[in-house]
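Extended Data, panel c. Modelled sequence:
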Amino acid sequence: MGFRPNPDRARNHRWATLARDYVKWNEIETSAADGVDQVRAVSAARWARLANLNIKVIPRVFLDYPKRGKYWPADMTEGDYSSSQFKDRVTRLVGKMGQAWDNDPCVAFMEMGLIGFWGEHHSPRPDKDMQKLLGDAFRSAFRNKLVMVRYPKDFTDYQFGIHWDSFGHPQEEKSHIPLLESPPMAGRWKIAPMGGETAFDWGTPLGKSPTDAVMHNSDRVVSLVRRLHWNHLGWLSDYDEKDEVASRHGALIQKAFGYRFVLDSARYPAAVTTGRRFRFAFSVRNTGSTPLYYNWPVEVSLLDPATREPRWKSTVPDLDVRRWLPGDNQAYTAGGEFQCPRTLKKGSYVLAIAILDPAGNLPSARFAIVNYFRGGRHPLGLIGVGMRPDSAEVSGFDDPGQDRSLGYAAS
């Protein structure tokens, strides 16, 4: 969630954990003879470094990029969006994309793309028959990754999210906002991401540039993000992070995007006994705008106080973090019983919590609290094994904004 640059910019962006990647159709399929291996090879090369940077990608496959070129396979008719050949080929391509990307840890969400300028579903717009063909194809191909489409007026029979690529433009607000806040879209944000980008090349943009918009229109952006439950935005992400005012206002916008899990309290015994069970519980509020859209596990661990390495770890049972919704300052309580292993030596340990990316089960998403150790775990306090510590207090926290050590397993 959050500011969403393109991949090259994301690598050096202060906040970026998402990137949107334009993928030309004729890069991943030059002819009907190309198989899914071609899709995998191209994307693996393009996204090779993202896992080590803890960045996930939103692919959009497209055919026509105005003023740059058209990217049709050589054995297809350029500009033909309606023939039986196109319908057959696009269905088959979506199937290959699903085989390659539906279980790819690098992929966060899918933008449907394919039709029209920039794959934005205009010039031409997909008619009802094409919406059904593509909607069925994407729903079948992507069982694990969530899909977004350009316009809330389209694909109304599908539970897709939206990428609004002129976010905040008065010229589109009149059509978009009423649809986003009315059935069948109202509440869609609870199960599907709302994202896209701002635009600075037409209409009445949020500012003269991304930096100008962030500096002078951050209140408006935050208001819309919270009202519409927005998860991410690109183009606006290209503001000048070296500008002190823009950086400060950018941080306010980043806090409004997506989920923001504030850990209010945690309860656990001061001392535990090896071989015995103990109970741990915590309370969390989501002060952001959306849920975390995938059910990532929450880890509980006992860390060595000197090295901060886990000496024991487990995950909270029967927990679905997707249910931690924002709104009304609601607190969610979670926890469970855990077995203290017999192999632990007597002494004090740091009880910590973390949200894991299932791709490698590594700490990834973070709570919005000061208690933080480099590597993604949040220390809550000291706990004794076979003894009672003099104090539960733990200190020496790290700045999560400076931690570039997080990542996930790409395969």
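The mean pLDDT is 97. This feature is highlighted in the accompanying rendering.
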